[in-house]
C-alpha cells in the first residue's frame, strides 16, 4: 500500500508515541470502490501498542476492517502502524467527515492517543459525453443487419458513473454492452467509460431518437442521436502511418516514423503515441497545422535506430481523440524483401555528404502535404536498381549566355523510395538550385519507377569547365549509391549503349550508300549496253 504525506502530529510528551494520520495515494487493490486509511505511531518505548478505530459518531469500527502491522525498531525507538479499509459509500459523505484512530501505550499507565484521519479530497470533474453513430457508407441496405451506437464519457472524476440508453424516451435493456472504466491520466486522475447499443439498420433508419444518459456525481448528462441528423456529419478522422524513408536511414542512420491524423475539428484531447513491438513507449513529438477548411491535422513523430527498422520490428501508432470512440491503432514495419542493413557510404562520396548530413537531419515543425501520406506497404517488394543518365545543357540554352539546365534521369528502379542530390566540384548544391520530380510508374512497365532532377547552372560556370555530379541513392544498388558526372569536356561523350546505337547508325548509313552506288552502277552499265545494241542495229 502506498501512503501519502504525513499531514499532522499530536502527542503528549516525548515518552509517549507520536501519532500521524496516513491517507492512501491509491484505492484498495481489491476494490476500487473502497477507501484505505492508516495510522502511524512512532518513537515509543516499550514496544507495546494497540490500535482501534471509531467513526465520527463514536461508533466502533469492526476489528475485521483494519489490520495492525508488527512493530519496527529503529535507533532504539519503536514504530507501528494500522490500516483500515472501508466502503467509500459508508464514510466521507460530507466534507468534514473523519475517522478517529486511538493508540494505547502502557508507559506510565494506560495512555490513549487519538488523531483524526480524513480522506484526500478528490477533484470532481464532469464527463464529456459523445455519441458515435454508424456512417451512411457503412450501411449494407439490409434492414436486419446490425449497427452500433457508441456512447463515450471521458475526462471525469471520481470514477463512479452510470451509462444507459433510451429510444424515444423509453429505456433500452437488450442490445446494451458496457466496457470497463479506464484511467485516462493520473494527474489529476480522470477516467473514461463507454457503452455500445446494438440495433438493426431498419431501427436506426426509422429516425427514432436515441439518447445516451450519463449519471455522475448526482448529475445527469444526455446526448441524442438520430439518422435524420446524420446528413450533416463531418468526414471521419483519418489516421495514416508514414514509414521511414530511405534517405533518412541512409543519411542519419536513424528511422523516422510519422503518424498523420487528418480531419480534426480541434486538437483538444488529441494524443498521438508510438510504441515498440514489446509495448515500450517511444518518445513522440506532435506538430499541428490548421487548414483553409477550418480543420486541423497533426503529425506524431518518433525515431528509432536504423537497425531496429531494418530488422522488421513492428511499431504501433496509437491515436486518441474526443471524436474517436476508441483509440485507433496502426502498425507498420519494413516490407519484406529488402536488405537487412545499409553498407557504409561509398568512399568517393564521403566528403560530398558531410554538409548534406547536417542539412537533412534537422526536422522542421512543418507538416507534409496530405497527399504524401500513404499506408505502409505490407507485401513483398521486388528490388530493381536504377539506371542513371546525365544530360548536359543544350546548345540553344548556352547560346543565350544566361542560365542552363543539367538533367539527371533516373529510371527502371523499384521500390519507389529514392533520393537525388547534386554536387558541384564535389560539394553539395543547395536544394533551391534544383528540383526533383516525385517517383512515377514507367508507362511501359508500371512495376518500376522513374524520376528526373533538373539543376540550374550559370552559362559562365559551365563554360569554365565546372563539374556537376548527380548522386542517386537506392537500396537496390550494390553500395546503395551511385553517381554520374558531367562537364563541358564530356558534353560530346556518349555511353557504351549510345555508342552502340551510333555504330549501328553508321553501319546502316554505309549499307545504304553502298546499295545506292551499286544500283547506280548497275543502271549505268545496263544503259550503256542498251545504247551499244541500238547503235549496232542502226
From TrEMBL:
Keywords annotated in UniProt: Immunoglobulin domain, Membrane, Transmembrane, Transmembrane helix
PANTHER family tied to this protein: TAPASIN (PTHR23411)
SUPFAM superfamilies xrefs: Immunoglobulin
Bilayer-crossing regions: 507-528
InterPro entries: Ig-like_dom, Ig-like_dom_sf, Ig-like_fold, Ig/MHC_CS, Ig_C1-set, Immune_Resp_Modulators
Domain of life: Eukaryota
Source organism of the structure: Cervus hanglu yarkandensis
Region Disordered: start-end pairs: 331-385
Skewed-composition ranges (Low complexity): 367-379
Name of the protein this chain belongs to: Ig mu chain C region
Domain Ig-like, first and last residues per copy: 17-118, 127-228, 236-333, 386-487
Any Pfam family matching the protein: C1-set
Amino acid at each position: 500500500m502506498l501512503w501519502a504525506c504525513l499531514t499532522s502530529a499530536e502527542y503528549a510528551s516525548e515518552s509517549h508515541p507520536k501519532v500521524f494520520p496516513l491517507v492512501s495515494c491509491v484505492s484498495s487493490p481489491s476494490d476500487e470502490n473502497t477507501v484505505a486509511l492508516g495510522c502511524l505511531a512512532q518513537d515509543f518505548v516499550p514496544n507495546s501498542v494497540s490500535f482501534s478505530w471509531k467513526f465520527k459518531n463514536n461508533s466502533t469500527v469492526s476489528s475485521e476492517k483494519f489490520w495492525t502491522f508488527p512493530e519496527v525498531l529503529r535507533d532504539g525507538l519503536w514504530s507501528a502502524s494500522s490500516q483500515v479499509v472501508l466502503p467509500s459509500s459508508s464514510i466521507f459523505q460530507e466534507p468534514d467527515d473523519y475517522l478517529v484512530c486511538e493508540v494505547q501505550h502502557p508507559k506510565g499507565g494506560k495512555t490513549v492517543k487519538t488523531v483524526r484521519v480524513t480522506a484526500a479530497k478528490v477533484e470532481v470533474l464532469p464527463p464529456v459525453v459523445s455519441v458515435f453513430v454508424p456512417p451512411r457508407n457503412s450501411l449494407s441496405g439490409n434492414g436486419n443487419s446490425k449497427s452500433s451506437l457508441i456512447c463515450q464519457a471521458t475526462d471525469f472524476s471520481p470514477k463512479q458513473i452510470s451509462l444507459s440508453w433510451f429510444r424515444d424516451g423509453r429505456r433500452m435493456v437488450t442490445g446494451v454492452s458496457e466496457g470497463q472504466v479506464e484511467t485516462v491520466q493520473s494527474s489529476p486522475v480522470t477516467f473514461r467509460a463507454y457503452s455500445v447499443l446494438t440495433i438493426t439498420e431498419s431501427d436506426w433508419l426509422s429516425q427514432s431518437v436515441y439518447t445516451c444518459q450519463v449519471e455522475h456525481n448526482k448529475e445527469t448528462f444526455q446526448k441524442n442521436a438520430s439518422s435524420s441528423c446524420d446528413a450533416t456529419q463531418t468526414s471521419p478522422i483519418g489516421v495514416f502511418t508514414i514509414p521511414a524513408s530511405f534517405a533518412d536511414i541512409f543519411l542519419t542512420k536513424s528511422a523516422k516514423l510519422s503518424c498523420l491524423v487528418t480531419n480534426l475539428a480541434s486538437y483538444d484531447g488529441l494524443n498521438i503515441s508510438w510504441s515498440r513491438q514489446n509495448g515500450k513507449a517511444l518518445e513522440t513529438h506532435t506538430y499541428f497545422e490548421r487548414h483553409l477548411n477550418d480543420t486541423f491535422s497533426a503529425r506524431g513523430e518518433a525515431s528509432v535506430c536504423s537497425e531496429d527498422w531494418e530488422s522488421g520490428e513492428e511499431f504501433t501508432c496509437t491515436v486518441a481523440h474526443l471524436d474517436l470512440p476508441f483509440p485507433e491503432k496502426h502498425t507498420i514495419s519494413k516490407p519484406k524483401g529488402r536488405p537487412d542493413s545499409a553498407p557504409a557510404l561509398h568512399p568517393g562520396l564521403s566528403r560530398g555528404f558531410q554538409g548534406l548530413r547536417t542539412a537533412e537531419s534537422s526536422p522542421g515543425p512543418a507538416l507534409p502535404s496530405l497527399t504524401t501520406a500513404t499506408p505502409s506497404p505490407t507485401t513483398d517488394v521486388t528490388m530493381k536498381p536504377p539506371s542513371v543518365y546525365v544530360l548536359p545543357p543544350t546548345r540553344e540554352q548556352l547560346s543565350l549566355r544566361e542560365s542552363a539546365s543539367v538533367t539527371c534521369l533516373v529510371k527502371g528502379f523499384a521500390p519507389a523510395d529514392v533520393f537525388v542530390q547534386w554536387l558541384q566540384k564535389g560539394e553539395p548544391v543547395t536544394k533551391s538550385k534544383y528540383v526533383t520530380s516525385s517517383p512515377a510508374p514507367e508507362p511501359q512497365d508500371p512495376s518500376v519507377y522513374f524520376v528526373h532532377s533538373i539543376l540550374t547552372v550559370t552559362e559562365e560556370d559551365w563554360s569554365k569547365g565546372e563539374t556537376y555530379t548527380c548522386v542517386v541513392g537506392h537500396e537496390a544498388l550494390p553500395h546503395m549509391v551511385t553517381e554520374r558526372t558531367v562537364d563541358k569536356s564530356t558534353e560530346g561523350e556518349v555511353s557504351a549503349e549510345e555508342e552502340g546505337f551510333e555504330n549501328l547508325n553508321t553501319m546502316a548509313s554505309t549499307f545504304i550508300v553502298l546499295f545506292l552506288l551499286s544500283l547506280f552502277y548497275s543502271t549505268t552499265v545496263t544503259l550503256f549496253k542498251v545504247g551499244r545494241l541500238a547503235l549496232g542495229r542502226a
